[in-house]
Specification:
By secondary structure, this protein is an alpha+beta fold. Helix content is about 20%, strand content about 30%. Helix 1 packs across helix 2.
Length: about 210
Amino acid sequence: MATKKVNNYEICKTFKDWLAKNGHRFNRKYKIRHYKKRGILRIYFEDVTPEIHCSVNERTGVCNAIYYKRKCWDLICDLECAIAHAKNGKYYCKFCDPPKLYDTYQELLIEHSFENFLEWVNETFTSSHVLELRKGVGGATEAIIIDTSLPDSLYTERRAAFGKLLKGLKRLPDGSPCAPKNSREMMTAVIPVITGQGFDGLSGMSEAPPAEDE
């Protein structure tokens, strides 16, 4: 599909405009901080563990990441949107195949990312969910949010995929196996998604928010 380059999509502003009309649909209270100079808007949800970072940025839209001990552990719930402008005036996401066309980039962002973000938050930020962090040989890390009300077997395939990745990392450039340094190569941590700290817990976040620069 032929496209023309268009810059200056106001993604954070579009999110704030959408939030003003739809914020009441979130099941948890929230606060936002818009760091205009950095082009990032952070969303903080009450009682949600600070390891889960929800943000909107001016480059790709909604990004949900896991930070543990000041390190980015993994990206979860990928809702990024690569906005493209077709020559016929329509907008679409370059990541989608086949792409869906929209009259405005705002409509694209809302349906592609914002509404899905709302649904994910309401489904995931509950007391039955836990954040499972795993770290293996070579420093490879992974994060999974697990619903403990469901059978644990549902997550077997995902865990096995990470195990296969680790086996790949345990090989030297010539293809020979790399001997493990010790038998305890996997570190696992489980953190409740809901902490019960309220917004007073903001000061203890792994990446404390600076003063808003609006």
